[in-house]
Specification:
With 72 residues, the protein is mostly helical. It has one domain. The chain is built from three helices and no strands.
Length: 72
């Protein structure tokens, strides 16, 4: 299935709050954060506060992310 990338910015721009007030041109390793990334980070910090550093869980999450990206 082919997907047009032309419409992608219009479809996802609202997911990046910084774009509401800035033109963000820092596209290196510290790019603009989407709402999904901010939410995931908040869950990560909440979990750390509650349970400490759950090493095994985060290794599993990293492996799952790698598998997901490998499937692209």
């Amino acid at each position: 299935m082919a997907v047009s990338v032309d419409a992608l910015p219009a479809r996802i721009r609202h997911r990046f709050p910084i774009f509401d007030r800035l033109v963000y041109i820092n596209s290196c390793s510290q790019g603009a954060l989407s709402d999904a990334v901010r939410d995931a980070y908040a869950r990560y910090l909440d979990d750390w506060d509650e349970h400490g550093a759950p090493w095994e869980y985060w290794v599993e999450q990293l492996d799952a992310a790698r598998r997901s990206v490998a499937g692209l």
